[in-house]
Every structure is written in structure tokens, then in C-alpha cells.
Specification:
Layout (H helix, E strand, L loop, with lengths): L1 E5 L2 H13 L4 E4 L3 H11 L2 E5 L2 H8 L11 E5 L5 E6 L6 H12 L2 E3 L3 H4 L12 E3 L1 H10 L3 E5 L12 E2 L13 E4 L76 E4 L4 E7 L5 H15 L6 E7 L6 H10 L3 E4 L1 H5 L8 H7 L5 H6 L4 E8 L10 E7 L4 E7 L10 H9 L2 E5 H7 L8 E5 L4 H13 L3 E6 L9 H7 L4 E6 L4 H9 E2 L5 E5 L7 H13 L3 E5 L9 H10 L7 E6 L7 E6 L12 E5 L5 E3 L2 E3 L5 H4 L6
Parallel strand pairs: 1-2, 1-3, 3-4, 5-6, 8-9, 8-10, 10-11, 12-13, 13-14, 17-20, 17-21, 18-19, 18-20, 22-29, 23-24
Antiparallel strand pairs: 4-5, 7-11, 12-16, 15-16, 24-27, 25-26, 25-27, 28-29
Helix pairs in contact: 7-8, 14-15, 17-18
């Protein structure tokens, strides 16, 4: 929830604008400002104050407790010109909120966090819990010092600056200097050295945690974290089990070296429980299993069990206290999983010889902790079992539509995915359009026209290596673009995210007026990948159905007869005066458009940068705009309209 606080009439108007834009996210606080700030600070995750920054500093100073738990605070000036991220830029989300507030109010977001200012991702914004000397390593990143990246578990990270490097294969284990370690293991002693040696509390992952917290008592500091946007990976070289390295050890670094540890959501705990098993018993079992294996509870992704236990109160409560989902599978699915320790008891009770191990392994991965039972202080039989699995590697492929070319038609989601990627794959001319949006250190794999198959295969291959990949295309990447060939290459071993974009047809329609007001179809006239016979059949079907048609790839230097042929087919079913819109480079600075008719259109004026929209029998030229009526009754009979 976002608390909104104002002290003047102008501030109240601006606060109401935010409340109207975000009715489910905001709460207006009235009354004396000091009291309102105090209530909002205690009740909300974020606060927007329509006050001077100096006044807000004095008001919130006595309330500040911990940057990992304090709400993010944004200040908006009286004139609504600036949205200033004041407190909690990363952990509290104030930096992102300032941008959002600016978009709604037309204000300039002011973000002074050093990493954001230079385009370097904050270590506490990567979607993983982070422990250790965040400030020290961030300072090293900004100062250009060499920072070592130890990927004990390959994980899709955003682009990191060029001064972040993987260690050489023959590097000594005794390494020094600042480092970023991605691991689900805990160091000897259960602590990560750093200037903030306190028990972690922030579920966005900005504090240190130690193992051994009493989970049975319901403490959540060690376990919960926000895992939004994080995918699964398996360990690479240097993982537990390598020769000469104990399971719970993290590579040694010199004393005083700045180091942070990122905790990926790599662990799945399968759980079985008798009816009425207490949540405390389940939690105590999970805690001991992770502790004995040297695994961090902050890397816990989910609890898994059989469908029959989906509503078991002890399991539901345990998952809630851990801050992870409880995922269930059918007995048939679990019975098909090969496990080392099958049992007759669960087979008789729920129809599968294994619950804990099978539920943990059903998605694949490495069994780290075989099935173990809980121990009860009263000596009675155990009521819970668990097993721990490290998930298999999963890279991330975002297929991103860039829109028709204008920067203001590039969606915020597309921008976010471009900045999240460590590898960008795309056509060279499209890469040039968004190169300035990429983070420093992004690896760019660009190629020319005709290399679509190569780009698709490259993007999928990079994702399979555990990278965070963005594959770009113009318009919407799923419309005559890269999504189709990429997804044909991909399988279920990577995560795929589609990011829609504004298509050329839609951008052209907005320029022309409202030509797509009723049923419409897009047809590519390029016979490079589709036989002309198929294309012609589709054009005839659209003509006979009286559907508005937008032609993509209408004409090129080596392919000049298809458009006249397609227009002739349409002319057999539509009047010569049927409006036709011609838009070249829609939305770009050098764009142009004109409205003509089916009889008057000269195909020689059309090229590959053009889309041609042919109206149906109802389409009209109204005041120089191309309009296809929707067919509303009130438009047909305006006198009878209310």
C-alpha cells in the first residue's frame, strides 16, 4: 500500500490524481501532517509526501529504523515538477516509485542513488536476497575496481559492468578483493562477513541472515524473501560435491575483503505429513535438513507435496511462515518419479510410494538431502518427512517487441526487459534504436537481414547457458518477427517471457484514423517463406468476407507484382472508391502517410517500409480520415438515441 499525504490544496489535488490512477494501491491520509506521516510510515510499504523535502526529512527522521524494513518515501514539490526519491531507493522501492509518480503527474523523477545514476544495477535490486557488504561492493563497482563474480550456481543476472569478471579456471581458492558470490550454501559458521552483521529481516533481501533461527517458533527473518522474477538454475563448477570442498563451504577470501552473497531460489523442499502434523514440527524438520546440508534457507523456492495434502493445515501454515508457495502434484505424477527411498506407508495412504522425495524431484534436479523424518521430543512417531533438491538450470529468454520505432511507443515493460538482460540478440538496425537503453556490460549479438534463423538459435542457446537474454524485434515480436522462430527452437528447459509491442498495423491505423474499427486481418505479401498460392488464397478469402486488410511487406525492388495482384483481387469485391491508407515508417521522424482509393493507388509508390490498409465496403473517408464503422445501433439511428 502507498500512503499519500498532503498539506496544501495543490498537494491534495495531486494526491487525488494518484489515488484515482492507483485506486487499489493507494490510501489517502488526512489530519495533522505529523500524525498522518506517522500512521502511513507504520502502515504502508511506500509513502508519497506532497511536501518540501526538508519538511519530510524532519518528519520521518525519528521514525527511521532500518533501511531493509523502512518504507520507501517519495517527495513531490508544490508545483508538481519533481518526484524525489528520498528514502529507501532500492529496498523500499522509492526509486521506481518516483518514476511511476512522474509518469502520472508529469513530474521529473529525481533519483540520486549512485548505481541508478550510472546505469549499474543495484545489488539489492536483482530479485534475490543479498547478504554481506553491499555498500563496499557497490562502491567497488562504481569505482571501476576489479570485482570477482563467483557463480557457484548459474543464474540469469542482468548485465554487470565490465569490471565484474569470472575467476580464471586455475585461480587459487585463496582469492582476495571485492566479490559477488551466487550460491545457496552458507559459509562455515553460518555468517557472511560485512559491516552489517545483523540478522536479516527484509523479504526483498537486503540484510544478512544466519542459519539456526528457531523456525518452530515462527521466526521468519531467515526464510522469507521476495522472489519475484527469479528463475531456477543448477550449480556449475565449484558446486557442492567438487573434490576437496566440503558441502557447506564458500570459497575463502582474505579478511576484510568486501563481499556479497546473492541467494538464488534454487532449493525445493518436498514434504510429507501425517494428518494433523503441527507446523512447528514441519518447520523444525526443514530447518535441520537445510542446516545439516549447509544450505541457506533464503534460497528456498517452494514446498512441494501430494495433492491429497494441499489443505493440510500444518503444511499450509509452514509454507506461509516461510513465505513460499505450497505446490502440489497428483499421486500419479509422484508415483512415476524414481526415488531412492520408496515406502509402503505413503503408497497405502495417498497412492504413491514417495511423497517427500518424489515431490522434490518431480521437476528434476539434484537430490541434496534424501528423505528424513522429524524427531519429536515426546518420543512419539514422526509426523513429517522432507527431502531437499537443487533445481535444474533454467535460463531466461525475453522476446521483446520494440514497437514501430518511436521511442515513446516503446512500452515500459520492454524497457525493463532490455535493462534486465545480460545478452541482447537482434537485427543490427533494431539494436541501434535501443542501444542507449542497455546497461553497461550488456553483451550484444547483432546480425543483418536474412539471419533470422541464426538469431533465433543464438538467443535460445544463450538462454540454455543460464543467461538472461533479450531477443528483439520490431513492432510486436510475435507478428512477422522473431518470437515464432525462437519458440520453435526452444523447449521447456528455459523460461520464455513475451513482451508485446505496438505493431506497424496499429501505428498506421492510429495515423490514418480508425480503419480497423471492425473485423480486420493482416497479410504479408512476401513469398520468401510462404508460397504465393497460399497468400493468394488468403487474400481472396478476405476479399470475399469483406474484411479490412492490412498488407505487410507489400513491395520490394525484386518483388513488384504481388501488390497489384492482391489489389486486383480486392477490387473484384469492392468499389473503386474504397479508401486505402498508405503509411511509410509509421511514427518515425521521416514517416509519411496518405489516404487514397483502391482505384487511384499507384503500387510503385509503395516499398518494404510501408503498410497498406484497404478498407471494407463500409469504410469511409470522413474529413480526411479513414473510418470503418463499428456498426453501433445508435449510429445507424441517431434520432432514436438517448
Amino acid at each position: 500500500m502507498i500512503g499519500l499525504i498532503s498539506a496544501t490544496a495543490a498537494g491534495a489535488v495531486a494526491a487525488q490524481r494518484l489515488a484515482s490512477a492507483w485506486p487499489e494501491r493507494t490510501r489517502l491520509y488526512e489530519g495533522p501532517v505529523r500524525d498522518a506521516v506517522g500512521r502511513a510510515f507504520g502502515e504502508c510499504e511506500q509513502v508519497v509526501c506532497f511536501l518540501a523535502t526538508g519538511a519530510v526529512v524532519r518528519l520521518i527522521a525519528p521514525l527511521l529504523a532500518d533501511k531493509g524494513t523502512d518504507p520507501g518515501v517519495v517527495c513531490v514539490d508544490e508545483g508538481g515538477r519533481f518526484a524525489v526519491s528520498l528514502v529507501g531507493g532500492h529496498a523500499g522501492g522509492a526509486n521506481a516509485l518516483a518514476v511511476e509518480v512522474g509518469e502520472v503527474l508529469g513530474a521529473e523523477p529525481v533519483v540520486t542513488t549512485a548505481t541508478d545514476a550510472v546505469g549499474v544495477p543495484g545489488l539489492d535490486t536483482l530479485g534475490m536476497p543479498v547478504e554481506g557488504d553491499v555498500a563496499g561492493v557497490s562502491r567497488a563497482l562504481l569505482d571501476g575496481e576489479d570485482v570477482e563474480l563467483d557463480l557457484e550456481i548459474a543464474w540469469p543476472l542482468p548485465a554487470l559492468p565490465p569490471n565484474v569478471r569470472r575467476p580464471a579456471p586455475d585461480a587459487s581458492a585463496e582469492r582476495g578483493g571485492p566479490a559477488i558470490v551466487v550460491t545457496d550454501r552458507v559459509p562455515a559458521g553460518g555468517r557472511v562477513s560485512g559491516p552489517e552483521e545483523t540478522l536479516g529481516t527484509d523479504r526483498a533481501g537486503v540484510r544478512e541472515d544466519t542459519l539456526g533461527t528457531d523456525l518452530a517458533a515462527g521466526t521468519e527473518e531467515t526464510f522469507g524473501t521476495d522472489r519475484a522474477g527469479v528463475t531456477e538454475e543448477t550449480p556449475t563448477a565449484g558446486s557442492p560435491g567438487d573434490a576437496g570442498e566440503p558441502l557447506g563451504a564458500v570459497p575463502h577470501r582474505g579478511a576484510g575483503d568486501a563481499r556479497v552473497v546473492l541467494r538464488p531460489s534454487s532449493l525445493v523442499v518436498g514434504v510429507g505429513a501425517s494428518r494433523g502434523a503441527p507446523a512447528d514440527e514441519v518447520l523444525g524438520l526443514i530447518e535441520s535438513a537445510l542446516r545439516d546440508a549447509g544450505l541457506s534457507p533464503r534460497s528456498l523456492a517452494e514446498l512441494a507435496t501430494v495433492d491429497a495434502k494441499a489443505d493440510e493445515p500444518g503444511l499450509v501454515e509452514a509454507a506461509a511462515r516461510l513465505g513460499v508457495p505450497l505446490v502440489t502434484y497428483s499421486a500419479e505424477e509422484l508415483a512415476a518419479v524414481e526415488v531412492p527411498n520408496p515406502s509402503d506407508a505413503p503408497l497405502a495412504a495417498v497412492g504413491t510410494p514417495s511423497v517427500a522425495e518424489a515431490a522434490a524431484l518431480v521437476g528434476g534436479g539434484e537430490l541434496i538431502v534424501p528423505k528424513r523424518k522429524s524427531e519429536r521430543a515426546d518420543g512419539r512417531p514422526a509426523m513429517a518427512t522432507c527431502a531437499v533438491v537443487r533445481r535444474p538450470a533454467r535460463g531466461r529468454l525475453a522476446v521483446v517487441g520494440l514497437g514501430p520505432g518511436a521511442r515513446d511507443l516503446l512500452t515500459p515493460r520492454a524497457k525493463a526487459e532490455l535493462r534486465r538482460a545480460s545478452v541482447l540478440v537482434g537485427l543490427d538496425q533494431y539494436v541501434d534504436q535501443i542501444r542507449d537503453l542497455l546497461r553497461p556490460g550488456t553483451r550484444i549479438l547483432e546480425s543483418g537481414l536474412g539471419a533470422e534463423e541464426e538469431r533465433a538459435r543464438t538467443a535460445v542457446a544463450e538462454a540454455r547457458r543460464g543467461q538472461a537474454v533479450a531477443l528483439i524485434g520490431s513492432g510486436d515480436a510475435g507478428v512477422y518477427a522473431m518470437a515464432s522462430p525462437a519458440l520453435a527452437e526452444a523447449s521447456d528447459d528455459i523460461d520464455v517471457i513475451g513482451v508485446p509491442g505496438v505493431t506497424a498495423a496499429l501505428a498506421a491505423a492510429a495515423i490514418l484514423g480508425a480503419p480497423l474499427g471492425h473485423d480486420h486481418v493482416s497479410i504479408s505479401l512476401s513469398d520468401l517463406h510462404t508460397p504465393w498460392e497460399v497468400i493468394e488464397r488468403r487474400v481472396r478469402a478476405a476479399a470475399e468476407a469483406d474484411i479490412v486488410v492490412t498488407f505487410y511487406n507489400p513491395r520490394s525492388r525484386g518483388r513488384d507484382w504481388q501488390l497489384p495482384k492482391a489489389l486486383a483481387i480486392l477490387a473484384g469485391h469492392r468499389e473503386p472508391t474504397t479508401p486505402v491508407g498508405v503509411v511509410r515508417n509509421a511514427s518515425r521522424p521521416d514517416g509519411s502517410h496518405r489516404l487514397t482509393t483502391l482505384a487511384a493507388l499507384d503500387p510503385a509508390t509503395v516499398d518494404m517500409m510501408t503498410v497498406v490498409t484497404v478498407g471494407n465496403t463500409a469504410t469511409r473517408d470522413i474529413a480526411g480520415r479513414m473510418v470503418t464503422p463499428r456498426g453501433y445501433r445508435w449510429q445507424e439511428n441517431p434520432e432514436g438515441a438517448e
